[in-house]
Specification:
This protein is mostly helical. The chain is about 80% helix and about 0% strand. It has helices at about 1-5, 15-45, 50-60, 60-95, 100-105, 110, 115-125, 135-140, 145-160, 160-175, 175-185, 190-215, 220-225, 235-245, 250-290, 290-295. Helix 4 packs across helix 9. The longest helix is centred in the C-terminal third of the chain and has 40 residues, at about 250-290.
Length: about 300
């Protein structure tokens, strides 16, 4: 009451200069020690034996095979999980049905389950002694310790990424625009491509970027289902571990630098998408209020 009568704003948490400086300083120290320092060490150690050792490690057939086996599951898993995320978000936010909340909980299970546990679970489902193992072996189909197992494990771990980006946004947008388009005679697909997709495209791209980064960096589940066979079933994260266990620290850091570069490009793409999304959010305000521009 007193602050309102005098026209002064009530004090906020952190208004004191000392508290504000201490808080910012703690955050900067934690960021430097936990995020920046490991990335710097990767870059320094990768070239500690010289450029030629770095180059020889990157162009080694095992490293190139590991890079290919990291990229290929992403080419398969990311589009599948993108389609699943859109379908799941559409179903949960646009329709009312029994078990809708339970479905949302199930979709988020991969966030809370350890990747190692997921890999072991796949062993009991698709392994030779698992539920479908004998039937798959009878038809000569090999899931585990092969590329299909790596793809399935990557899909499980990254299944919620796109859906969790879309569901909150689509819930906030509601159903009014789709119902208006439908009442004007638009078909379901036209409503999706003309109304829904333009409104969710930045969140969708953001989810795709995060999903792709996680697929390429996944270690736990892939290490269980792939068998980690050098030159055959090891992805780039697994190849880094093998090099490190072989006391090839410089080679391990050289291979790790590729994943670090992917992470950097992912952050750049994330920031670019956020700026694009923010620009799109501001643009309608400028168009719908032209009088304000002339004042």
């Amino acid at each position: 009451m007193g602050a309102t009568r005098t026209g002064r704003k009530p004090p906020r948490v952190g208004d004191q200069p000392l508290f504000r400086r201490m808080l910012i300083g703690i955050v900067l120290v934690i960021v430097a020690l936990l995020i920046v320092a490991p990335l710097v060490v990767i870059g320094v150690e990768a070239f500690s034996k010289g450029w030629f050792v770095y180059r020889d490690t990157i162009i080694h057939p095992d490293t190139l095979h590991a890079i290919g086996l990291t990229v290929f599951p992403a080419i398969v898993a990311v589009p599948v999980n993108t389609a699943f995320g859109i379908a799941a978000a559409w179903s949960i936010t646009k329709f009312d049905f029994w078990g809708r909340r339970f479905l949302l909980v199930v979709i988020e299970i991969p966030f809370s389950v350890s990747p190692i546990v997921a890999g072991v679970a796949y062993l009991f489902v698709y392994g030779l002694q698992g539920v479908f193992g004998p039937a798959l072996d009878e038809y000569g189909l090999k899931i585990l310790f092969a590329i299909p197992g790596i793809i399935l494990a990557s899909m499980f771990v990254t299944a919620p990424f796109v859906a969790r980006e879309l569901i909150p946004l689509m819930q906030a947008q509601g159903r009014d625009l789709e119902e208006a388009a439908t009442s004007l005679g638009a078909s379901g697909w036209r409503t999706f491509f003309s109304v829904t997709l333009p409104n969710i495209k930045w969140a969708l791209l953001y989810g795709v970027v995060l999903c792709n980064a996680r697929v390429m960096g996944e270690f736990g589940a892939v290490s269980v289902v792939s068998g980690n066979i050098r030159g055959q079933t090891n992805t780039l994260p697994l190849h880094i571990e093998l090099l490190y266990h072989d006391y090839q620290a410089a080679g391990a850091f050289a291979a790790a630098s590729i994943l670090a570069l992917i992470a950097v490009f992912t952050i750049i793409a994330k920031v670019a998408l956020e700026r694009q999304g923010a620009g799109r959010a501001r643009r309608p305000t400028l168009v719908t209020n032209p009088a304000e521009k002339t004042q």
